[in-house]
Amino acid sequence: MLETRDLHKSYQTGEARVDALRGITLKILPGEIIAITGPSGCGKSTLLHILGALDTPSSGQIYLEGHPLHSLDDDKLTALRRLKLGFVFQFFHLLPTLTVEENVLLPLLLSGRVNAAARERAHNLLTSVSLADRSHHRPHQLSGGQLQRAAIARALIHQPSILLADEPTGNLDSASSTAVIDLITSLARQEKTTVVIVTHSEKVAAAASRRISLVDGRIQS
Amino acid sequence: MNWFLTLRIFLAHGGRDFLRHKTLSLLNLTALAVGVAAIVAIQTVNETALRSFRASLDLVAGRPDFTVEGQGFRLPEKLITLLRQDPAVREVTPTVQLVASLPAYRGEFLHLIGVDPFSNGELVTYRLEDALRTPTDAIAFVSEPNTIALTRPLADRLHLKPGDTIRAISGGHEANLRIRFLLEPSPDLIGADDHLAIADIATVQSSFGLGGQIDRIEALLLPDASGNITSARTQLLSRLTPHLPSHARAGPPERRGNEIEKMLGAFQLNLTALSLIALVVGMFLVTNTVAANVVRRRAELGLLRALGLDRRSVIFLLVGESLLLAIVGSTLGIFLGLHVARALLQSVSSTITSHYVLLSMRDIIVSPWSLAGAGLAGLLAAGLAAWWPAREASLVPPVDALQSGNAADRASSPRSLAPLAAVILFFFTLFFSATALYGHIPRTGFLAALSILLAAAFLAPTVGRLLARFPSLPFPSAILARSAFVRGLHRHGMAAAALSVAVAMAIGVTIMVHSFRATVDQWIGENIKADLFIAPSTNIIAGALEPLDPEAETLALATPGVRAVGSYREVRLFLNGLPAKLAACKLDILRIYNPLTFLYSLPGDPYELCLKGDFAIVSENFARRRQLKPGDTISLPTPTGLRPLQVAAVFRDYTSESGLLLLDRSAYQRLTGDLGLTSLAIHLEPGSSAQAVGDVMREKLRPRGEFLIYSQAGLREEALRIFDRSFAVTALLRTLAIAVAALGVTLSLTALGVERTREIGILRATGASRGQILRTIMAESAYLGVTGISLGLVTGFAVALILMQVINRAFFGWTIDWHTPYPSLFLIVVGMMFACLLASLPPAWRASRLPPADALRSE
Ligand SMILES: Nc1ncnc2c1ncn2[C@@H]1O[C@H](COP(=O)(O)OP(=O)(O)OP(=O)(O)O)[C@@H](O)[C@H]1O
Ligand SMILES: [Mg+2]
Prior knowledge:
The complex is a heterodimer of chains A (221) and B (859).
Chain A: E1 2-13, E2 16-28, E3 33-37, H1 44-51, E4 59-64, E5 67-68, H2 74-84, E6 85-88, H3 100-110, H4 116-128, H5 144-156, E7 162-166, H6 174-191, E8 194-198, H7 202-207, E9 210-215, E10 218-220
Parallel strand pairs in A: 3-8, 3-9, 6-7, 7-8
Antiparallel strand pairs in A: 1-2, 1-4, 4-5, 9-10
Helix pairs in contact in A: 3-4, 3-5, 5-6
Chain B: H1 3-20, H2 22-61, E1 66-70, E2 75-76, H3 78-84, E3 89-101, E4 109-115, H4 126-131, H5 135-143, E5 147-151, H6 152-157, E6 165-170, E7 173-183, E8 196-200, H7 201-207, E9 213-214, E10 216-221, H8 230-240, E11 248-251, H9 255-296, H10 298-306, H11 311-355, H12 368-395, H13 398-402, H14 407-410, H15 417-437, H16 444-469, H17 476-487, H18 489-527, E12 532-536, H19 537-541, H20 551-557, E13 562-575, E14 578-585, H21 587-593, E15 598-601, H22 606-612, E16 615-619, H23 620-626, E17 633-638, E18 641-651, E19 660-664, H24 665-672, E20 679-684, H25 690-701, E21 707-711, H26 712-726, H27 728-755, H28 757-765, H29 770-811, H30 822-849, H31 852-857
Parallel strand pairs in B: 4-8, 5-7, 14-19, 16-18
Antiparallel strand pairs in B: 1-10, 1-11, 2-9, 3-4, 3-10, 5-8, 6-7, 12-20, 12-21, 13-14, 13-20, 15-18, 16-19, 17-18
The complex binds adenosine-5'-triphosphate and magnesium ion (MG).
Residues 11, 13, 18, 20, 40-46 of chain A line the site of adenosine-5'-triphosphate (ATP).
């Protein structure tokens, strides 16, 4: 479903060159829940961004359900993100200008697919993340854990094939962390979504079906 | 607090922030500079005009203790002896002046001043100091007939040098003048007109038929024991008054200073109004820039607070940083403003010359005070604009500021107060309109205009919010733009306010100018009936009122095809302390060929009254400014004494800003002894062609000097050309204000784009395409545009109403019929909308091109 071959990514800032990824080859199967771990700065976020079609590799190939992400243009990548990918970030990343419900509906709004059924689904998702009563609030009126649950609902609203999460619990207390991880895993199973989570937390990693450790831009076996 | 530490943080932190957000910082700087530039440009033009005007007057008036001058008519020479014999007087010197055309140089003229090089001893001013360095020079001046001194700029322009002769014509007299000296402009009289020429008073009198006549007498007085001349002056005045003709004005020369402002009337008004607008729009820009900058950085401040920075330091830091930015911006703005002023100068100069007085401005006069003032305005705006949000930011508990989410979304806005302020300002508008109209404090009319503009500005956020109440178009970008617009009102509110002020002013001025022009045009069509008009060219080119060659009237009457000739005489004088035009014409011809539009009149035929007795007809603005009605009496100072005239009728007229007092020609000649003419209006036999008669007249007059001969259509064109030229500055400044507002929009959107980089990242991650981002930001700009423009449109009508019904009425007393220029308004509205969308293009493009991963990483 998602496959990479010898991915490299380097950043050039002035004189200095940072090799964030140095040859990543991996294969992710449908329904898997993958945890990516590793020390800070080892390239986890970079990898996740490339897996999520937000960034392109400097070299190497990456295929999402057969689509060669490394050679697609921005429009095609956008279309894939719209249809097949969902994101959850460490800092909640809701749009402050929209209500919680509107935030959840955002992926559908952007592809012009907001209808009664979509609203129904948004309501169901918000119920399952226990935010049904908060749907008309604005992000700044919510707590950190609530924000993250809303972000999860948004990531799943359009039934993506893959959910990508970058340290979704990095900013939460342990109780909220557990709740968020439980939510992701249970919802993902329920929706048969593949999940890739970047995390520092052992507990989260343990809940995954497979674990990939990165060190210095390489997979440690 | 530890000032040293704060200062270090301030310099390191602020400086780096500036460098890190290069685009934003440069935009902020530009906005500040443009705001200050707008103020500087208008101030400088204003200042230059006033100073040049004053310099021209000084040049003519010298710097004496006491002056006697004839207003409207010249003075008899015998007054010199009268003054010279007075015990209080130390020195006395006369001058006579006129404007002569130079037939060999089309469009050029001399402003010829006749002086007495022997008697002006200590009254020597610039003119003689430079021309006559030695007594022999003075002797040459007097002994060699027809000797003159010319300014070096004019001599250079006409390729003349000492020894050359030029032919000059005035009032049917011509003379060959020999250039003997060149005048160097001295530094204290920069800006004075370079058409100036000096000759011996006898030369001027004999060459141009002014024997025994002088224009003014200047005197130096003997101070009393304490070195004071005030009492000497008072005594002199009381001794002199019984012997002076009633049209002579005697007294200290300072009095003229006040009259300058009155004479520059409408022009000053125009510029004052515009400089106020520039100030408002400029201040808005500065305020917006600085305030938004502070709001943007609240999170950072939270961090600094958490790290132990105290509240006062936070304020100090923010205000200091803004001031630093403002200093750089203001400095740039001052340079920019001076350039704009230089560019504006030409049109200003011709405006004044064609309307008021002879004035040529070659370069701007920079007053350090007005520059300092503009710079200070920029700093003050920046300081205040920073202080309020800085104080607010300093009050936020550090945790709050540190919490995630866009800091700006949490900033409370004082919005509940804004509509109230708008309502209060609206009442101010009414109040000031009333004081201007009924309280006889015309200047408050400007406060009325300013109040309504500020009211609109305060309403901008409310209107924006109202607009966002409407459901948006069912496109993703429109939906997103709508909510983003509401949440971005902390920035957009100010931009919309600046936009609405600029649009309101543009619309107000456009309606006013259009209505005024249409009124004048219509009036010309209905009231100017003659087929041909003839006037000396200097009167048109130099705004002078030199007499026409009397031969012209004889020639006109003898030309085949001519049925009647109306003759006009015009002089300028002060009546009841206000400038006015005294005019005379043959009313028996006027009533038949070109009847006036009377608004009110005494019972009976006003023409008959004027033909038979001491009656006059006055223009509407003349009557309104002096609160006169038919039957009232005016005292007219003439060389033969003070003559009471009864107002027979009030008529509609747009030829004179200061108002017109019209007499029958014979009555005028009887009262004043002045037989001169200023222009002719020729009525033709049916069937004869204006073109043909005009050509014949032109041919006949050619050897007699330079004349301007207009057909009816030509006169209308000329009148409208002058009209348009006098509003050319207005149009330029209107464009400037609009450009400033458009820049405000770009700035607002760019800044928001920078603030929202991460949000753009989320949108891209959730599947927004580049096109959607582009459209969202453009739609947001459209919201901003619709808010500012719709508010500006409505306010513009109110501004037009104030300009026409309050300011114009209070200052000039004209009736301007309302004509709405729909096509122009449509153009302004569409043009501004287009400008808003165009202004949004760079920030929208930038946002849409951001790589999503980078956008997400931004903090
Ligand atoms: N835009 C960029 N320009 C330059 N270097 C970058 C950029 N983005 C990331 N890097 C560098 O790439 C390397 C990998 O960064 P990445 O964000 O992927 O690390 P990470 O594993 O997610 O770290 P953390 O656990 O702290 O989030 C780091 O050394 C980082 O400094
Ligand atoms: Mg990371």
